[in-house]
Fold:
Amino acid sequence: MAIKTILTEPNKLLRQISKSVEKVGKEEQRLMDDMLETMYSANGIGLAAIQIGIPKRIIVMDISKDENKKEPRYFVNPVIKNKDKLKSTYEEGCLSVPNQFAEIDRPKNCEVEYLDYSGEKKLLKAEGLLATCIQHEMDHLEGILFIDYLSKLKKSMIIKKLSKNKSNRIVV
Ligand code: GNR
Ligand code: NI
Structure:
């Protein structure tokens, strides 16, 4: 396993639409292992492959609170089958938008169809943080970041800040 560099906004790669995976093979499993290790080392609860520069429709996630009880989840080619009209609000952050947080509304519940680590087809009914996180990650597969839901002003202020930090090589 290996820890990869997480791309941060502004970066064109993050705006790319990721491609479906044909088959969950050794290469994809190695990628999922690296993604999980990268996510844990950055203290994130989810990571999409494009965040480490790989435009494949693969997500890893672990929303468990207890560090000693890891509950890794793997989603390949996830598709939302059903989502709630009812919305819930979470304060979101993103490893690709470091140190920025905002309240975002998303459907409260959703059903996701996907392939798991061994390539088996699964259906998951998600609610709460799990539903929010899946939708946040699936946005990455379409090149969407949570700041895209903010006003133009708020979004441009965040991007300006991040660009400044990048040019100063500040990593907070
Ligand atoms: O670590 C993360 N926390 C988080 C909190 C609220 C809503 C979504 C997330 S996902 C984020 C990791 C990340 O950037 N995944 O793409
Ligand atoms: Ni993110």
In short: DSSP finds three helices and seven strands in the chain. The helical segments are 26-41, 128-141, 152-167. The mean pLDDT is 96. Residues 94-96, 136, 140 surround nickel (II) ion (ligand 2) (CB under 6 Å).
